[in-house]
Amino acid sequence: MSNRLFSLGNISARWVLGKVLTDLLILLTTVLIIDKVAYIVGLVVLGTITRELLYSAVVIMVIILICRIVLSWGSSSIAFRISAKVKLMIRDRIYSKLLNIELDYRDAKKTGALVTTTIEGVEALGIFYGRFFPQLFLSILIPAALYCYLSFYTQQIAMILILCVPIIPISIGLVQRWVRRVSKTHWHTYEDLNAYFLDSIQGITTLKLLGLTNRRTEKISQKSWDFRNKTMKLLYTNLTSLLVMDLIALLGTALGITLALLYFESGMIPLPVAILVLLISYEFFRPLRQLGSYFHFAMQGISASKSILEILNQSEEFENTSEGEKCVPGVNHDIKFKEVWYSYGTNTSIILRGVSFIAKTGKITAIVGQSGSGKTTIADLITMLYKPQSGQILIGDRDIQTINREELRHQIAMVPQNPFLFYGSIRDNLLIAKPSATDNELNLVCKKAGILNFINSLPRRLDSSLTEQAKNISKGQIQRIAIARALLKDSPILILDEPTSNIDAGNEVTFLQTLKQIAMMKTTILITHRLSTILDSDRIVVIDDGIIVDEGIHNELIARDGVYAELFHDQAMNDPLYRTMMIEK
Questions:
Q1: Cα angle vertex 62, ends 56, 63, to 5°?
Q2: Residues of the chain predicted below pLDDT 70
């Protein structure tokens, strides 16, 4: 764990060396001040002090003190820089990893836990690398340096003090397992509370509609109280261990003072040396005592690092394709499924069972079926969000697993079932697809998506702001903005997952007419359970329980009186619009 933890930060040895050297210079200023104070006090006690000596000593100490202040500022700045670099680097690694790891992990991991790890966990690691790690070296170097310095004056006292120093790390080692166990429990409780609280905030509307706010509040209170108890226990362990280390440091200092008095009384050391020992004794124990105070932050960092490493050690999706062939644009973007099998996990049921079909360029291929039949999974496999257990998915004549993932996705424009709009303006959300798009291009795609009239009715039009998760507009408007964004991308492959589920009948007809024109130059896959949207599709693929059970155009499928006909008649029974369409067909 230690090697993995130190490699996680990947900090520059130059910066750590700078921090250690700066703190050693601070020690030098401390020793010089103590030495000068001991010298002056000795002269005062002996009655041999002169005004010139006193003034010169004061001037020297003021200069040393100014140097110490500058060095202390430099030490803090270096520690801050190390911490900032580590936090920036680790957060960048986490975000990059989350973009590339298998979706199975992201689907299973709570969002609140990920946020806690990325924010609080990385903060704890910043302290670990910026403070604790350099202090490890200082806790060895400073006592050794003080021993060498004090040995010039009194070898015996210096030896006794240096032998007492290891008592502090021994005490740290004795409580380490206890503190680590408590820190680990505290961290997991903290993650759980944040995840549960975020989940409650995101689902607050549902909780209100179901009348569950009081029950949820009680549950949050229970988790908060549990976190409070874990925090108090952590504080207890911290204070107990700090108290032990303080007592050892004070007893060691008291021992140094006692030895100085005894040696002075017996005439073994002169008065200035006795005063020097009196003043410098605590400095032997201060670095290790400081290390002990950082030790508790280190335990928090170690606990957080386990969650961070869990993320960073996840296998990436399609690692073998990161340097794969470029997907060369061309006229042939036919999508072919060949005996594709897929399940979301080893212990889950199979979603797709030997699926085979072709979606041709210039045609609209509709995929229909009941909810849970595997329609959306097909789209996720095409975009390489998931990897099939067996079988092949080809674009043209290339297996997508041999194509560079980023280049592949550049060739695909997709509107998912629940599209996401980012906080910002409508223009910002559209320009994600094509940053160089002009207002004319934006208005054109908005018109095709049936959203232009709504946008023009807003005071700031395209520059109108969207709140978090676009809660200030309707689901239908969100869907149409997402459709406009996909059209603006103008990729050769267009995948629409339930594109009209939140669109009214009038806008649906307009959009389908537009889609028919757009599809003439693209490979278009239309996934839906709303059969009114696919009556004019060039090919309809019917999937049931992960199996392709039929293919054809609408009239052929109706004539076969199979699963498609059953779905169509069931919808027609509940919607007069379907009965009208059925008569027309």
A1: 90
A2: 1-12, 101-113, 172, 175-176, 205, 209-210, 296-297, 314-331, 345-348, 502-508, 572-585
If we measure between CA atoms, which residue out of 69, 26, 42 comes closest to residue 278? 42
Residue 237 burial (CB < 10 Å; 0-12/13-18/19+)?
buried
Tens digits of residue pLDDT in 6-26: 555 566 677 888 888 998 899
Asked whether 585 and 535 are in contact (CB, 8 A), the reply is yes
* All residues at 6 or more sequence positions from 272 whose CB lies less than 8 Å from its CB, including other chains: 38, 39, 41, 42, 43
The CB density around residue 48, as the number of other CB atoms within 10 Å, is 9
Give dist(CA 427, CA 449) in Å, integer. 15
Q: Do residues 16 and 82 touch, judged by C-beta distance below 8 A?
A: yes
Domains of the chain: 81-312 (1.20.1560.10), 331-411+492-585 (3.40.50.300), 419-490 (3.40.50.300)
Rounded to 10 deg, the angle between the 13-46 and 51-100 helix axes is: 160
Question: Mean pLDDT for the chain?
Answer: 80
CA distances from 243 to 248, 250, 292, 475, 538 (A): 9, 10, 10, 59, 78
pLDDT digits (tens, 9 = 90+) for 445-490: 888 888 888 888 888 888 888 887 777 888 888 888 888 898 888 8
